[in-house]
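Course exercise 7: structure representation. Students receive a sequence record and must write out the corresponding structure in token form. The form below is the worked example handed out in class, using Ubiquitin-conjugating enzyme E2 (147 residues). Read each field label carefully; the graders check that inputs and outputs are placed in the correct fields and that the protein name is recorded exactly as given.

STUDENT ID: A-19
EXERCISE PROTEIN: Ubiquitin-conjugating enzyme E2
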Amino acid sequence: MSDVEIRRSWRLCRELRLLAEARSSHLRFLLPEDGHLNTIRLILTPAAGPYRARPVTFQVSLPSDWPFMPPILSAITSVFHPNIARGRVCLNLTRDDYDRGLTLTAIAHALLLILATPTPDDPLDPEAAEAVRNGTWEAEVNSRLTE
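STUDENT ANSWER:
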């Protein structure tokens, strides 16, 4: 195992410990059954907003050069949200504002925040962004969840 791989493994162990310490009714995580830790599932249950008390699952894929490159986020649960569409997730922390010191726990908390308070600027889902702008987003989410 190379020095880089050893450091990556050490960092991943630290990240998993931090996630375990942050576990709550709002944040849970699942590790893959095959033992390969390149993919982690986050189950997030926001405390506010239209997804409050409704679990939303995300997949966090760690590229081989993580933490030097950002993790890749995917939404497993289908949601009506301007920053999430067709599994894609727009979160600046994992794009333009990525810093290799960013923890997976911080990413989970950022996802909880955008689930409760979306940003309609530069959306992945323009229809959801328009609903946020005109104040109908929460009602729209609730109607879609009850269908």
